[in-house]
Design brief:
Length: 98
């Protein structure tokens, strides 16, 4: 006999609550509060346009004025070139970058 949607939902909620209770027991209770970042003393300092180290690829590419699609095609060209791909294919992909 198939269960109704409401029965399945109640069962899922019950299982979630059981898992949360087990997780709290393993971690020793509630979560530690996340500290608020302190405001810096020099709030009027302007930042340079260079991306910060460890930033995302999109930040790096925007600093170089290259969109992600062109960078992906350039990477594909490099990989294919290293594997000895056909020159016509490489030139065709290069045309897409223009």
């Amino acid at each position: 006999m198939p269960e109704s949607f409401e029965d399945m939902r109640r069962d899922a909620v019950r299982r979630v609550m059981e898992m949360q209770a087990r997780a709290e027991g393993l971690t020793g209770g509630g979560q530690a509060p996340i500290p608020e970042p302190e405001p810096s003393a020099s709030s009027g300092v302007t930042h340079s346009s260079a991306p910060a180290p460890g930033g995302s690829l999109a930040d790096l590419l925007s600093g170089l004025n290259i969109d992600e699609e062109k960078a992906l095609i350039a990477l594909l060209i490099y990989i294919l070139w290293k594997n000895g791909a056909d020159k016509k294919l490489l030139f065709g992909l290069g045309y897409l970058i223009l």
